[in-house]
Amino acid sequence: MKLIYEKSRPGRRAGTVPNPAIPRAEVPEALRRRAAPRLPELAEPEIVRHFTQLSTRNFGIDTGFYPLGSCTMKHNPRANERAVNLPGFRDLHPRQDDDSAQGALELMWRLQEILAEITGLDAVTLQPAAGSQGELTGLLVIKAHLAALGEQQRVEVLAPDSAHGTNPASVTMAGLELVGVKIDERGYVDLADLKSKLSDRTAGLMLTNPSTLGLFEENITELTKAVHETGGYCYYDGANLNAVCGISRPGDMGFDVVHINLHKTFSQPHGGGGPGGGPVAVREELAPYLPVPVVTRSGDRFRFDSDRPASVGRVRGFGGPFGVFVRSYAFIRRYGPALREMSEAAVLNANYLMARLRDAYDLPYDRACMHEFVVSARELKKQHGITALDVAKRLMDYGFHPPTVYFPLVVAEALMIEPTETEAKETLDEFADAMLAIAAEAETAPEALKEAPRSQPVRRLDEVRATKHPVLRYRFDEHPSSGDDG
After folding, report:
1. Whose CB among 132, 215, 306, 316 lies 3.0–4.6 Å from 293's, allowing a Cys bridge?
2. Cα separation values, 121 from 101, 232, 283, 296, 439, Å
3. What does the pLDDT look like over 179-238, one tens digit per residue?
4. Phi and psi at residue 296, in whole multiples of 5°?
5. Quick one: average pLDDT of 115-130?
6. Kind of pairing between the strands at 257-260 and 233-238
7. What domains does the chain contain, in order, with CATH numbers?
């Protein structure tokens, strides 16, 4: 696209005199419209009804059970929304000076202190706006510290086969190299394989605990000790913190860096990809490298501190997603010392569901789980041709959002289920009954699963075709009413 440079001249309209200071894009002649677009003319009631009807077709945590494994989707208390809409929080401007935003800064400081205590670490940045951004931030902090130590050769980050998909991506974005570690037949990190891959090139270990299989690593302290003895650092992916919050702390397990998904563990709407929050907690020796600004306290005053010469710099605009902080702070304070009950209930619910489903689905790792568990539809596929995707699609006809399917990759025909702590036993039983009914249908009426979902406005998509032939732009010639206006 060609650029035209223009400025204003007295007595003439802006944009008519060439000037190399102000660029303007000129649309090529071949791409310009030959006639005005035919826009629909609608009355307000028609528009309101249209979007209201669309909204009723959406599935959300307020309309049904959302057992989405590895991406905690819990109820978000309405009290959180009242807190975030208090005028002193709602009406803040990002560029307000510290003196006129003391309440907000104090909330952020107190949230930092709470998260440090929960993780068992020393310092926290609230700036990252998602868990994935928290991962990148944590790795950059480790990389900066290793550089300061003169250990730039440490570029390898170990991660198990069952790691979240964002882990390898974050490693690459940080300019580091991923080294895969096997998991053993019981679903745990293969300690011998890990030790064999440690060297003077090891920057650290990236681990989710409990894992995506819903299992708490039995040898967790031995794993972190082995990495530390080699000179590396241990990064804790906090995506599954909802299983252990208030029960065990990553810092006590030997981890040096933790990211926390505020929107998973401490309640915050995050459907559709955001908004979220991914604070990062670190040990004291890594604190100088945290992003700026950091909220600090001096007496009874709070301020943003940007005077951190060793900092990795900003990873996001301003101080972070403030609305998330208010909601999560309100959620944590409401639990208070009883915060561990949140995790205990989540673990209890997951084990109850697993017990109900064990006879109808394969359990690749058949023992007590944490907040989530993985079942497999491989026997249904072998005996009746029914896949995990078929099960997931049929669940929609029963009024439930499907769980995560085909992840983790180490389990064939995987369905990963996480009930969270916010669902009642009656809801869990309804979900279990539906899963059992679907398993029975696989034998007696497999066509019902292959044709599912039948009750949704959009039927099953041809995912192979969608991958090979994506629709990348709107084509006017497919709609006769558009005529030659293109």
Report:
1. 306
2. 27, 17, 5, 16, 45
3. 999 999 999 999 999 999 999 999 999 999 999 999 999 999 999 999 999 999 999 999
4. -125, 165
5. 96
6. parallel
7. 2-31 (no CATH), 78-338 (3.40.640.10), 341-468 (3.90.1150.10)
